[in-house]
Design a protein that fits this description.
alpha+beta; four-stranded antiparallel β-sheet; two-stranded antiparallel ribbon; globular
């Protein structure tokens, strides 16, 4: 029963197309050559980073329910019309900011005591809340840095994102055991 509930959740929360070419956060640094989509000329920006946070479930050998939250860069949906290194650093921070929120999701899931009868609903609520917060932060990041043009704000945001990654480092492992 628990497996069916969580697996139903996965279908709603994992927005990865099987055809997507993904790079897992932390596996390596993204480069301009990873931005494989055709540039969208209707945007006022010169690059776009597409990433996704996925949620999957499994049981371990002790029959504990494990939720795996991963952050991926989507190469075939990310694009650029520049080769500027400053803009690349800005785009890398977008991906890092997604990892901050993946870690916040893991933290929230690890710290919450779940009601087994509402497990699916409660896991969904955590995932949706932090994804909404991430979307708002991504917009604020672009607005305050003016897409990397405001160098002072870019440095502040880069430092802030790095500090949050360090602060949440204990939640860097993709897998977390649920308490219920």
């Amino acid at each position: 029963m628990k497996t069916l509930l969580i697996l139903a959740s996965v279908a709603l929360l994992s927005f990865v197309n099987p055809k997507d070419d993904l790079i897992s956060w932390g596996s390596r640094s993204i480069e301009w050559s990873d931005f494989k989509a055709r540039p969208n000329t209707s945007f006022k920006t010169v690059a776009l980073t597409a990433s996704t946070i996925t949620l999957n479930s499994k049981y371990d050998a002790n029959n504990n329910l494990i939720i795996v939250i991963e952050n991926f860069f989507i190469t075939n949906k990310s694009w650029t019309s520049t080769s500027d290194s400053i803009v690349l650093e800005h785009e890398r921070r977008h991906f890092d900011l997604s990892e901050v929120y993946a870690r916040k999701i893991r933290k929230a899931l690890k710290e919450k005591k779940f009601n087994v009868k509402k497990l699916n609903e409660e896991v969904n609520a955590v995932f949706v809340k932090y994804n909404k917060d991430l979307g708002n932060q991504q917009k604020l990041y672009d607005s305050e840095t003016n897409h990397s043009i405001n160098k002072t704000m870019q440095k502040q945001w880069s430092a802030r994102i790095e500090a949050e990654l360090i602060e949440l480092s204990e939640f860097g492992d993709a897998a977390c055991v649920l308490n219920y």
